[in-house]
Design goal:
This protein is α+β, with helices and mostly antiparallel strands. It has 2 domains: 33 residues; 142 residues, Immunoglobulin-like (Sandwich), CATH 2.60.40. Helices cover 17% and strands 48% of the residues.
Length: 211
């Protein structure tokens, strides 16, 4: 007698084994091409914005140009002649040290300039600050010999007769250019204005105050 299950099992087509499970087909869904191109465009724009931000940060830090600073650091007297008889005369040779402080990320190339010494409204001395260059984030020292020559000098009312102190001013104006790689090349003119007290009794200068 035949098995009931074998009687109910349908006959398989020729060439197909009846004990194989039925095959299943999985459909692959692909995104439309316009969606892929839109995402690529978004990525490109985001990259451009990111790189632009980085460039602006670099430019604001490394390519920004500020004015260097010119200062009178030290003053010493090499020769001193002072007469206060019928007329006051002054003949002084000073050894001075100027500094050029460059805080830029590029070198500063400067020209010769004239430093003057002023008392009241009169120019009583001068010296030449030699041109040169100072590297990025560097400070350069320059030695300058300055001469003070004055005849018939009149002391101002604020001078102390007891100490014989003269308040004088040293002024200089320097012109140069800041070179940051090959991108930035800017002209910068800097000024120095220093107040000094000259003690005629001790024949010495008090510390200069520069601005």
């Amino acid at each position: 007698m035949a098995d009931p299950e074998s009687q109910m099992r349908p006959l398989a087509p020729d060439g197909v084994r009846s004990d194989e499970p039925p095959s299943t087909t999985t459909a692959v869904f692909r995104k439309p091409k316009h969606q892929e191109s839109s995402k690529a465009l978004v990525y490109i724009l985001a990259t451009i914005v990111f790189l632009s931000t980085i460039f602006l940060i670099i430019a604001s830090v490394f390519l920004r140009v500020v004015s260097p600073k010119l200062r009178l650091r030290t003053v010493s007297i090499q020769d001193f002649q002072y007469e206060n008889t019928n007329s006051t005369s002054l003949n002084i040779t000073m050894l001075t040290e100027f500094t050029v402080n460059n805080q830029n990320f590029g070198r500063y190339v400067f020209e010769n300039c004239n430093a003057v010494v002023v008392y009241g409204n009169s120019t009583i001395g001068n010296g030449v600050v030699s041109g040169g260059r100072v590297g990025a984030k560097k400070m350069k020292s320059i030695s300058v010999v300055m001469q003070i020559r004055s005849q018939n000098l009149n002391f101002s009312s604020d001078a102390s007769d007891r100490m014989e102190v003269m308040q004088i001013t040293s002024y200089a104006k320097m012109t140069g250019r800041v070179h940051v790689t090959k991108i930035v090349d800017r002209r910068k003119t800097i000024e120095m204005n220093c107040l000094m007290n000259l003690n005629l009794t001790s024949r010495s200068f008090m510390d200069p105050l520069c601005s």
